[in-house]
UniProtKB/TrEMBL annotation:
Keywords: Lyase. One of its GO terms (molecular function) is DNA photolyase activity. Pfam families: SPL. PANTHER family: SPORE PHOTOPRODUCT LYASE, SPORE PHOTOPRODUCT LYASE-RELATED. The keyword Lyase applies. GO terms for cellular component: endospore-forming forespore. The keyword rRNA-binding does not apply. It comes from Desulfosudis oleivorans (strain DSM 6200 / JCM 39069 / Hxd3). This is DNA repair photolyase-like protein.
Length: 371
């Protein structure tokens, strides 16, 4: 991870105790601003404004909802996931990171008005009629924040006290020290994004190695945490099949299948505007030079037969290790499901239902929520 070198504080954030806690943990001088445009001016002056945005932290308020629906699309099978929007952007640097093109320009932000977040969570827990699956790792990496905040500790404790929702902390870091002493009551899933060592080396700067991620997953498992893995993005290149299958084998060497809540598979897809960013910032990366077509959501995706061929192999290898572990596709249609898995989600009550059942089975949620 890159260190945070510059701190800006939105004046409205000054009255929150979290602001002072983060400033003290970073031990940096802070510039208090009234206009966020000043941060963007700082970035605009940098040679690589995306890289600069990873070193500049803005402590500010989340003026929208903390708890949101995952921005899945209506064209592909969506899983009903909810996002807890704790902050934005990341101190690691992956070529394919959609956040480079998602915010204009991207800047590291952390939301300090967490009293509002607490109220939203309380309401969600009280009103839940089915299991809630909530993750913090959609607009940021969940565990980068462990270097300067105790947010994850507090969230694990909050989720530990109820039986309706699971928290998924998705990461490419090994920042789990703060999680170790917690009485998590199996309500927090610690999840790692996995890829081949070749892609990690070429396209995931400032992250951790495969061995480190798997060793940390094993350590979390030994502490009783349910774990999950996300093969995303799966990248096609010569020799990729053997390398992805080897990663599957190593994953199961690290964690026995009965402790894995779910494994997702998602092939590389990108908004067209990300391509020039990758070409400029990662000139040695080859990932944008494949056989792509434009999907119904306007994202570029691999030609479907290529997606199916590789995903089927990976799914089969997972099934050889354990026929029952929950495997799902992130944003794929019924044809891909049928040809890779031999069924479509509807036959199992829908994708959301499949994942709800797995969450209930592994995370000690109230079984009555399944109806
Ligand atoms: S770890 Fe995730 S959030 Fe961070 S740069 Fe990589 S893809 Fe983006």
């Amino acid at each position: 991870m890159q260190p945070i070198s510059t701190l800006y504080i939105d004046r409205r954030a000054l009255r929150y105790s979290e602001t002072e806690k983060v400033r003290a943990a970073l031990n940096l001088p802070a510039t208090v601003i009234d206009d966020p445009g000043l941060v963007y001016q700082d970035l605009a002056g940098a040679e690589d404004s995306v890289a600069r945005g990873k070193q500049v932290l803005l402590l500010t308020l989340n003026r929208g909802p903390f708890l949101r629906k995952c921005p899945g699309t209506r064209y592909y099978r969506c899983c009903g996931y909810k996002i807890l929007h704790i902050g934005a952007f990341c101190t690691m640097d992956c070529s394919y990171c959609i956040l480079q093109a998602y915010f204009h320009p991207p800047v590291l932000q952390y939301y300090v008005n967490q009293d509002k977040m607490g109220r939203e969570l309380d309401r969600a827990f009280a009103g839940a009629r089915r299991p809630l699956r909530i993750g913090t790792g959609e607009f940021t990496d969940s565990l980068i924040w462990n270097t300067c905040t105790d947010l994850n500790t507090r969230l694990v404790n909050v989720f530990a006290g109820q039986r309706k929702a699971v928290l998924e902390l998705k990461t490419k870091t090994v920042n789990v020290e703060g999680l170790k002493p917690l009485a998590h009551n199996r309500k927090t899933i610690v999840a790692w994004s996995l890829n081949t060592e070749r892609i990690m080396a070429s396209d995931e700067r400032e992250t951790t190695t495969l061995s480190q991620r798997l060793a940390t997953a094993r350590a979390c498992r030994e502490l009783g945490y349910p774990v999950a893995f996300h093969f995303d993005p799966i990248v096609l290149y010569e020799g990729c099949e053997e390398e992805y299958l080897a990663v599957v084998d190593r994953m199961f060497e690290a964690v026995a299948p009965e402790h894995i809540v779910w494994i997702s598979l998602g092939t590389f897809r990108f908004m067209p505007q990300l391509k020039p960013v990758i070409q400029e910032r990662f000139p040695d990366s080859r990932i944008v030079y494949g056989e792509f077509i434009t999907g119904m959501d306007r994202k570029m995706r691999y030609f479907k037969p290529l997606r199916i061929a590789l995903c089927r192999k990976i799914a089969q290898r997972i099934r050889q290790h354990d026929p029952d572990v929950t495997v799902y596709f992130c944003m794929e249609d019924d044809e891909v499901w049928q040809r890779c898995m031999g069924f479509v989600p509807k036959q199992k009550g829908g994708l959301a239902r499949m994942l709800d059942k797995s969450a209930v089975a592994h995370c000690d949620l109230d079984k009555k929520l399944l109806g």
